[in-house]
Fold each of these.
Amino acid sequence: MKHIHNAVGIKYLPKTYLIEIGAISAFNKSIISNDKNHAKKKEYDTSLITKVATPPTFSRFLNPGEFETEIDNPYSNRLDGGSEWHYFKDITHGDIMTISGEISRVKIKNGSLGDMCIVTSNFDYVNQKNELSCTQISTIIYYNFSINHKINLTPHTTKIKQKPHEIPTTINIGYLNIGDALPELIKQPSTQQLVMYAGASRDFYQIHYDQQFAQAIGLPTVIVHGALKSAFLGQMLTNFINESANLTRLLVRYNSIDFEGCVMKCKGTITNIHTTDSKKIIDCDVWIENSDGIKTTKGTATFKLN
């Protein structure tokens, strides 16, 4: 057995999944369930069932196996610190995906939650053709709750007054310039949506749906999954690029907590436009703002024009 402080290099046992349309559909629904236009869409259109797009962060559904070496982890609580995805091949209905990975970094620090152990893991997602579909670098923050480090944040549950911006269905690269803003996407996740995402992503940590548990560890109420915030930004990006481009990279870091019922504004701006192998490459900054204008989540993304 190794202590978690000395866990660098420990591998996860590979695990294989058959990707079913139900899992993709449930993941999609958990992300868009509170959207105003979601209720207007037809559900279970059998003519489109094998064409459901896999969300960019779907790999969070695909957990690796146990550690090959048992780890002594004395920390009782955890928070998602962020993830970086690189995309090479779409994950689609019927694929057989194998996930492998290892712990690549462990950092010990003292912060707002007291003593923290920050663990970074690298994962590869390989399909039945031995093609690398995507990679993920995931960071988890482990800590022990202390009443001396109670999280003194107040949820902002202001109701959405403005309507979400209309999302263009196509891109005309001639009209894209550095500094241009991406169409804003507004979210206000309910506890029901958090429960849906917990099931769809198989992240059942109680701080996301159990009020009593959340309050027992110093939170005023349940909090939004970090990975769901990444999924919201992924939705904003894929809505914007539609079929005109492919998302090739998404990096997201969580700077502050967002609570259920809070207004979350997903935003982005174009930061760079260049050409590689005759393809236009677009880089952008992306983020989520709360109702006070604080950027609780920051990231970057890259997409390649078709």
Amino acid sequence: MTERVLTHVKLILAVLFPLVDAELFTAYLLGLIQDERRFSVLGLSRKTEKYGPGHLYRVLQMRINWEKIFYTFARPFLQFGKWYLIVDASPLEQKFAKFRIAKHGHVSTSGKKNVPQNQVVSLILTNGLIQIVLDYRIWVSPKVAQAKDYKKLTLLAFELIKRFHFLKLPVREILFDNYFASKPIIKWLNHNGYHWTTRLKANRTIYMNGQASPLSAMNLKPGEHIVAELKGIEGDVRILCLLYQNETVYVATNNVDLDGGGLEQSYRLRWLIEVFHREAKQQFGLEYLWMRNYRALYNHVGFVCLAYSILSCLRHSHSVTIGDIKRQIQDELYSFRDGIDRFANFLAA
């Protein structure tokens, strides 16, 4: 299993050469895969640094082209099967933290009320079995960000979608939640030939036979669907009422050829990005943010996304969980320092 991970890493390093330190890059990635959340705090305390690989944290200050890494990693997989894009955001919680990480530095929240946590906005690919991260952005609250650096969550998501379009990968199905179902995003997707599926709020205005009304006024029952128009957006959409996680929700798509069952199946795939966020936090220490500057934060998230993508591919081919894959690698690399030595030996081979 470790050799398969190393095969992926060697290909990635070939893309990055000679811009990053290969030894530090691979050691940090292996640390996340092997030691998960505990790895992210090693070497930060003056009292314990001699027991941990503190020198590895130099990799977090390097300029790493994560977009190039992720897209290079993803392209070969797109030759097989049908793939979907999913975009969503998730908080990077630092419980009890008295600071936030912004681009201009480590900002105290003292004297500020209800300062939101940083969030990661992610764009992933999935075929229903594998999740591969394509790109991400870090959102910082306007209460701590400088005005020139602040961007809304919806704008960050829009940037990810536009960047994907520019790079011309052959995927034209995108899934997102109602928070990102803004008119500018939907209009742009329609104009550029994408099929989208999203959840709608019950108070969203729709048009049926030229008459405007809130969606909730249609009194749809679970399983019922209609064809209507969204206010301010040209073109028909199919809207399905769905009982999802014990809640009545409305799901819409501009692919009106989908029947109710196809629309429900597409929307349920959107949940896979929630699975990615949960497993990245539980298995790879996504929220263990023991750093004090934005570049270190950004790189740490990049390493987590890469580790997850690699193990997601291995999980599918072995029909096991990511936790199972991690435990197998941990058995093969039975100590962190020995693991680094083994990694170096494999790379030198």
Amino acid sequence: MKIFEYRPFLGTFGLGFERFDQNEVVEVANLPKNVEFPYNNTHKQWFLSNFVEICDYKPQKEFDLAILNPDVGDGIRKQGKSNFKTNDLEDCLTFLRNNRPEFAIFTLDIGAIPLLNTAEDYTRDAFDQVSKDMLITELQKIGYDAYLVALDEASYGISTHKSIALYIATPKNFNMKFPQGLFNQYGLGKFNRYRTIADAIGDLGHLGEWVPYKNKPQNVYQRNLRRGLEKTTWHFPMKKLPSKQIETISKIRQGSGAAKTPSVKQKAGYFRPKWNQICPALDFKFYTVSSKRACIHPLLNRTFTARECMRILGLPDNVSFELNISRPEMAKIIVDSISPTIGMATALALRCI
């Protein structure tokens, strides 16, 4: 299957499709300069950075699947829930109307679902779920069968809870069946219990920019993320903590937080997750302890490193960044990216394997 991607962040969702040899991303639109290197470092071919208006974009290559990541939330909030005609979502729909690929996928934060519940009348998606979802309605008007898949990455073996909404457009009567996640809180054994922080980062060694692993992969999760590498990058904290903060977090036990803040000016909340449990949801300030409920390392008195966060989110070790990227920008790109595991599950659902 030939794939077109729009605003792909790290492109790790599309990378899941490329794990099956017959699939390939052939064209990318709105690829920011700051992700050109990490995006291309993991894909089959190299793409140059570009910014385009997607509604006016004319693809240079034929493609079967469009993976679209519109900026939905901000656009709807600015225009009002009942009017989304001028935001990025409508531009993506215009692109679909003009190009009509066989399949299309909108990858959105799950918080966008209530914002899209704006249709004037009830409709049914292809799973026969009833709602007033505007995107389902618009995809049906174009001529697709439309599915809404809401999932938690943790149930697919990722070491943190991250909620995602996939709006999937298929040809009529395609009868899509999305693979069910097999991991849960209790499980029937170690193979389908939630992956833990230890499962994700237990093999990482000394801190540094290009450092060898501490030992051989301890599990399938680590082996899949290494993909044959012998060293890893970006395994160092993205922000140096003041001594007062280090002193404060050193008193916090696993599974608990501290009510007191290190200073009056810096209001902070701390949370030290347990080493042998799944990580709570990470936000784009994972690299600092200045936000509420900021996660700190279960065993060490520091924040998670960039590599540890990428590992916890199921992003492969060959994802790297140029050193001059700003830390807030990099953190947001990491947290907004979807694990290749979810891309692989979606590829199975669309039978492009």
